[in-house]
Amino acid sequence: MTALVLSFTAAGLILAVLAWVPKAGSTLEIVLSGVMLVCLITVGVLLLAGDGVEGWRERWWNVLLLLAGGLAVTGGGPLTTSVLALVDRGNTRAQSTQKAGEVLRGGALIGSLERLAIYAALVAGWPEGVAIVLAIKGLARYPELRSPDQPASVTPQAVAERFIIGSFTSVLWAVACAGFPLAR
């Protein structure tokens, strides 16, 4: 069971890295993100079907800790842009959350740091850290969300939607990945 869990987690991490290569929102990125999500679900089912990480040797638990952390940080970016691309299907250009990315610059880096902080806080046994990370992010982004100087090609609603959908997707991904090493 340990080997299967580590193998699927490693496969998810490899897919996460590969998903950064195609253009954001492309069909290839969406497919890679979907398969990566299947790996995540498979690991969760394996851990739930077994005894979690109870009884694992410490070195294997440490390997899972590192693999899941890497997956949390790298996998959330492509997954988030894939979700945003799926949300945009059928929207006009002004309502596009992809276009709203021009207003919310630095999202990939901020998202990666956010997922790292959330993963670390949860694995360290400090769930309150999630609230602090989200509060800092919300306060830091507030001026951009309420700025009257947004380009005419983007609606304020699209900017707010991108922020909310992106944040929720990113946070849920990091929380799910943090659940692996904590599974008991």
Report on the structure:
76% of the residues lie in helices and 0% in strands. The chain has 184 residues and is an all-alpha fold. It has one domain (2-182). It is globular and about 55 Å long. The chain crosses the membrane at residues 29-49, 61-87, 163-183.
In short:
With 184 residues, the protein is mainly α.
What's the number of domains?
Answer: 1
Instruction: Name the overall outline.
Output: globular
**Portion of residues in helices?**
over 70%
| SS strand fraction | under 5%
Strand count: 0
The tally of helices reads 7
* Strand-pairing-aware structural class: mainly alpha
Rg, please? 17 Å
- Low-confidence regions: none
Give, in order, the helices and strands. HHHHHHH
* Overall mean pLDDT: 88
The major beta sheet can be summarized as:
none
Give the N-terminus to C-terminus distance in angstroms: 14 Å
Keywords: Membrane, Transmembrane, Transmembrane helix
SSE topology sketch:
Elements: H1 2-19, H2 27-49, H3 58-88, H4 97-100, H5 107-123, H6 128-146, H7 156-182
Helix pairs in contact: 1-2, 1-3, 2-3, 2-7, 3-5, 3-7, 5-6, 5-7, 6-7
From the structure above, extract its key features:
membrane, mainly alpha, transmembrane, 184 residues, transmembrane helix
